[in-house]
Amino acid sequence: MLALLLHSTILAGLGGYLVKAGPPQKADIALVLGGDFSGNRILKAAELVRQGYVPKVLVSGPAGIYDFFECDLEIPFAVKRGYPESYFEHLEHHAHSTKEEAAVLIPDLRRTGAKSILLVTSDFHTRRAGAIFRTAAPDLTWTIVAAPDPYFTPAAWWRNREARKTFLIEWMKTVAEWFNL
Predict the structure, then answer these.
(1) Which of 49, 136, 160, 176 has a CB 3.0–4.6 Å from the CB of 102, allowing a cystine?
(2) What is the CATH number of the domain that holds 30?
(3) Beta carbons within 8 Å of 89's beta carbon, 6+ residues apart
(4) How many domains does the chain have?
(5) Rounded Cα gap, residues 158 and 12, in angstroms
(6) What are phi and psi of 155, to 5 degrees?
């Protein structure tokens, strides 16, 4: 009976656990992670440049979308919405997970000389991505910035089919990460 009465609170807590981000701060550079097909990540990063938090955005571009790298689609998307192409730098790669993405992208970050990074990803991905990047490069200062997802909201994810799928997949990845799988 208690579970029925508190189901919304419990489900919101489980959704909220996935989100661990803070407000943006001045940093050397922003890094947009791949895996966003709504464009919210790159638009959030572009706005961080416009607001003066960072001078440039590195755009992670995994391969696999009809022979395109994701960054080759994201950057024109942001430009079409009024952001200058000069805000962005392509980072094409073949990583298939956030952990692989960190291994591939951290050398590129080091090449820029950046010491402080705004890591921009979808809100539901912030806790896991932040942990992965902080573990992979503990000498760098990471501020995790959440981009809103068009479907997922921590307080009501169970009311939307797409959000339920996102929740389940992100929790599977989170648990797998706990066991280093």
Answers:
(1) 136
(2) 3.40.50.620
(3) 56, 57, 58, 59
(4) 1
(5) 9
(6) -85, -5
The DSSP annotation for 30-80 comes to EEEPS--SSSHHHHHHHHHHHTTS-S-EEEEEEEEETTEEHHHHHHHHHHH
Whether 2 is in a domain gets the answer no
Does residue 7 lie within any of the structural domains?
no
Residue 54 lies in a domain: yes
Tokens of 26: 């001045």
Domain residues for the domain of 36 are 20-147
- Tens of pLDDT, residue by residue over 33-89, are 999 989 999 999 999 999 999 999 999 999 988 999 999 999 999 999 999 999 999
The pLDDT assigned to 65 comes to: 85
Q: Is residue 56 in a domain?
A: yes
Reported as a single tens digit per residue, the pLDDT across 133-155 is: 999 999 999 999 999 999 999 99
Token code pair at residue 66 = 């009809």
